[in-house]
What we know:
The structure holds 2 protein chains of 2 kinds. Chain A is mostly beta strands. Chain A has strands at 4-7, 10-13, 19-25, 31-37, 43-50, 53-57, 64-70, 73-78, 87-94, 105-106, 110-114. In chain A, the strands form 2 sheets. In chain A, strands 2, 4, 5, 6, 9, 10 and 11 form a 7-stranded mixed β-sheet that branches. By secondary structure, chain B is mostly beta strands. In chain B, the strands form 2 sheets. In chain B, strands 2, 4, 5, 9, 10 and 11 form a 6-stranded mixed β-sheet that branches. In chain B, strand 7 and strand 8 (73-78) form a beta hairpin. The interface between A and B is medium-sized, with 25 and 24 residues.
Amino acid sequence: DTAVSQTPKYLVTQMGNDKSIKCEQNLGHDTMYWYKQDSKKFLKIMFSYNNKELIINETVPNRFSPKSPDKAHLNLHINSLELGDSAVYFCASSLEGTGASYEQYFGPGTRLTVT
Amino acid sequence: AQSVTQLGSHVSVSEGALVLLRCNYSSSVPPYLFWYVQYPNQGLQLLLKYTTGATLVKGINGFEAEFKKSETSFHLTKPSAHMSDAAEYFCAVTTRSGYSTLTFGKGTMLLVSP
């Protein structure tokens, strides 16, 4: 009954590979996000989807492509992985429509290591 | 544009001592403010939030924070630290102009010694 779940929790891969991270929320929220946390613990928004529509796309290389098949799922596909992509990626969700509560709920994170 | 400054990347306290983690924000419109806690190798957990209304907000685990508009601050406090409070704490701000993008501070690691 985890609220926001991500798979996998750990991902170790080589440079140049393509990988995906999946996220699911069962909170009934309408907005989902991807954040990147670097080695210094700094958190930065990457993407945001509201009702499957991309609404925020920060300055992220186009090797990163999010996809939201429905309101409860947001996946992140990364092409041609680079060493600098090593980080912890967090998925989050919030309710922005009627009854908005403003806070975001975070998944446990996916630690990506590119060798 | 909005921003958050957390003073002190590390704060050390003794068990039983007062915890004070500082957060100052910058926002051109009324902000909504949050404190999150991150335990090692875990996700972020919401401690408390300020949106509107009472400026002193209480959260989980005995933490509270006070929104002070004149000082653009939202400092986090706890009267008596426990060993289990040792973690990374993040202050975050958002506004209601458009969709709520959270802008985080750089975090403060709270160290609790016996």
